[in-house]
Automatic annotation (TrEMBL):
Family membership noted in the UniProt record: Belongs to the NAD(P)-dependent epimerase/dehydratase family.
Biological classification of the source: Bacteria, Pseudomonadati, Pseudomonadota, Alphaproteobacteria, Rhodospirillales
Alphabetical list of InterPro entries matching this protein: Epimerase_deHydtase, NAD(P)-bd_dom_sf
Annotated ranges, domain NAD-dependent epimerase/dehydratase: 8-243
Pathway it works in: Bacterial outer membrane biogenesis; LPS O-antigen biosynthesis
Organism superkingdom: Bacteria
Organism expressing this protein natively: Azospirillum cavernae
One Pfam assignment: Epimerase
Name the UniProt record assigns to this protein: NAD-dependent epimerase/dehydratase family protein
Length: 336
């Protein structure tokens, strides 16, 4: 290792985490990655294999203890590790709470013992539930499924460690991140992974509902820049939304990808629109999204072969994958 400042990236072989590693290296940081590869992929960091200033630790974050050597001497910690697939959280709530909440506590304790200068937590905009838009950070919290709950409880732990132990932290609630290295395997979920594989196979895009629902897609390199800004600021204990603040409909995405469409039932518990109010991060950190949606989609199409081995979803397999989701979230709420 050189004498560079040191950053720890949990989940650093994953989608956003690997782009965070790239940005940190470009800024001269030595980087220590911890990723058990349950969701991340070694190939996301293959270009750094011979970099002496990148260390990759393949442990699970739940194995971390205070005093862990990976955190010793670290200046910054970026915590992305966790279970990110949304639909399976209905079937596996114990796993989600264990990894996304207790795993976060393990990271917090390792960071606290090491005396890190700043920890930035990757939270989720799903904590807002069926939110009013544009959504401000003060919006009521209303998770609709276990993934959203687990990510928000992880966020609460991060802010609690700041309150009680004085750990310097900031939180970023990510809206709909997209870009190269999105998941290409695993559970049914992220729309880009589903659609790009369908395009490669020449089959129709499975559009949920009528496709008029919109998502605040934000490009992954813009996300990484926001995290670095949140780490460098002297501000602590802050929560920031990040999105492009320009919601795009699913039909607009289909138009850019070019292909036929088949419609599948709209899922309960999902918002018609996600739209981040990014006034706070603009004002306090000077962050702005830089990559236009059309440019980001073009970049993904240029790398479409990355999705050649991804699962190919069709209406029948999606219906089977989301069966429990519909059964649970379609139930009427019982008022006290």
């Amino acid at each position: 290792m050189t004498g560079s400042s040191v950053a720890v990236v949990t989940g650093g072989a994953g989608f956003i985490g690997s782009h965070m590693v790239d940005l940190l290296r470009a800024c001269g940081y030595a980087v220590r990655v911890i990723d058990n590869l349950s969701g991340g992929r070694e190939q996301n960091l293959a270009h750094l294999r011979n970099d002496p200033d990148v260390v990759i630790d393949r442990r699970d974050i739940r194995s971390l203890e205070p005093g862990d050597a990976l955190f010793q001497g670290a200046d910054l910690v970026f915590h992305f590790a966790g279970i990110g697939d949304i639909v399976p959280s209905i079937d596996r709530p114990l796993d989600y709470m264990d990894v996304n909440v207790m795993g976060t506590v393990r990271v917090l304790e390792a960071a606290r013992a090491a005396g890190v200068r700043k920890l930035v937590y990757a939270a989720s905009s799903s904590c807002y539930g069926l939110a009013a838009t544009p959504t401000v950070e003060e919006h009521p919290i209303a998770p609709q499924y276990p993934y959203a709950l687990s990510k928000h409880q992880g966020e609460q732990a991060v802010l609690h460690w700041h309150q009680v132990y004085g750990l310097p932290v900031n939180v970023i609630r990510i809206f709909n991140a997209y870009g190269p290295r999105t998941r290409t395997s695993g559970a049914y979920g992220a729309v880009f992974g589903v659609f790009l594989r369908q395009k490669l196979a020449g089959v129709p895009f499975t559009v949920v509902g009528d496709g008029s629902q919109s998502r605040d897609f934000v490009y992954v390199t813009d996300v990484a820049r926001a995290f670095l800004a949140a780490a460098k600021t002297p501000r602590v204990g802050r929560v920031y939304n990040i999105g492009a603040s320009r919601p795009q409909t699913i039909l607009r995405l289909v138009e850019l990808l070019e292909g036929a469409v088949v419609h599948i039932p709209k899922r309960p518990g999902e918002p018609d629109c996600t739209w981040a109010d990014i006034g706070r991060i603009r004002a306090e950190l000077g962050w702005e999204p830089e990559v236009p949606f059309e440019q980001g989609v073009r970049t993904m199409l240029e790398r479409i072969e990355d999705w050649r081995e991804a699962p190919l979803w069709d209406p029948q397999s999606i219906a089977e994958s989301t069966r429990t989701w519909f059964a649970m979230l379609s139930q009427p709420t019982v008022e006290a």
